[in-house]
Amino acid sequence: MNDQEFFDLALRVIGRRASDAEREQLEVLLASRRDLKAQFEEIRDDARLAKKVLPLMEAVGSSSGEFPAYARERLLTKVRQTLGQPQPAWTKRGWNWRWALGLAVGAAAVVLLLLPMLTQPGEPIIQVAMLDTAGPVRGEDSDLDALKAQWKHSEVRTFDTAGQLDTWRTNWPSGAKVAAKVIYDRAPGEVRVILHGPGNPLEKTFPVGQDLAATLRQAADFIREQTRR
Amino acid sequence: MTPPNLQALRDGDAAEWDVAFRWLWPAAFGAAQAVLQPYLPAEVEDVAIESLEELVGEVKRLSTAEEMRPLLAKIARNRAVSRLRELYAAKRGAGQTESYEAKQEAGGDLPEAIAPDDPVGALEHKELAERLGRLLAELKPPQGEMLADYFLRGLTYEEIAKKHTVALGTVGVYLKRGLAAMRRVWGRGGKDV
Fold first, then answer.
1. Which of A11, A59, A125, B25 meets the CB 3.0–4.6 Å disulfide criterion with B30?
2. Among partner residues B73, B147, B178, which is closest to A56 by beta-carbon distance?
3. Residue B10 sits in which domain range?
């Protein structure tokens, strides 16, 4: 009997997969040869080890089996209890975030201080008004809508007396480097644009033809053109 | 599936743990099942969940995410063995007074998993992970699969030969080489542990 044949016989007996005849054959061999007895012990030790290691090896490499949904909350509770609530990423940076915040605030302050010196007159403040001496009773809102559509971010004031309009017209916003007032005088049918800036005040009148919206666009282009310089 | 981000797990990131639980589950379940399936099959899932809970507490001392599965498998196996020992202790309390060792020596039906000498349980998780990695590298296909077929699934030589479509005479050769590889990594009978 060679080594491999003895190994197979021993393994069948150890694995309880041997016939009575095979078991008897092994017993005879072990009784007569001491070297085979030692070999048998070695195979038995290896088999014991295999039974302990192989399940772990299989488990570690396994990808089958679905995680039971009911266990999720229990385990996440354990995570919270053991590791605490996760902190937002910025708090994990220790003191670095404070430095970053300080630098950002400093940079913002510098920009705010330098901005007026470094920039050309930017977007002007535009104030819009409509003078309708006939009063609002006429109920025609389309002109008002056209003004609101052209200057969406500006409040459109409505005056029914020239005196009120004059008061408004001379009252410029404080702190504004460049500002513009747009007055739609409905009775003569004209749009007046008054620019208030570092130089002399500038005023231009646009007669309104059939299309108020087109005239308002011209006025807006004028303001843009003048304040870009 | 790639291993989860260990730092996020340490930080208690719930979303990352969600990913991790799915990735880890087969290892926990498989290790518990290997011990408990013949005796306490209803306990397998519970032991796997308890093992995951224990792993949460261990995550801060791990160096890499790859260590998680071997460690978890070891935890699950140890917990399963404890559960099985409790079962046998209860039986002993009910009149079966033999010690584990005595019963094993007598060739009784004591599960091999709860035998006192334990080459797996004695290893630190890093060492265990390293040895399992080495063993996987040592076992040339289909040696590992055949060893599992013989020792875990109880197949005969004939069944293994048929399953792997190899000559009957070569099954024993594969098994012999597989056991030799295992001995190189773990020592004889796990004596290097």
1. A59
2. B73
3. 1-114+124-132
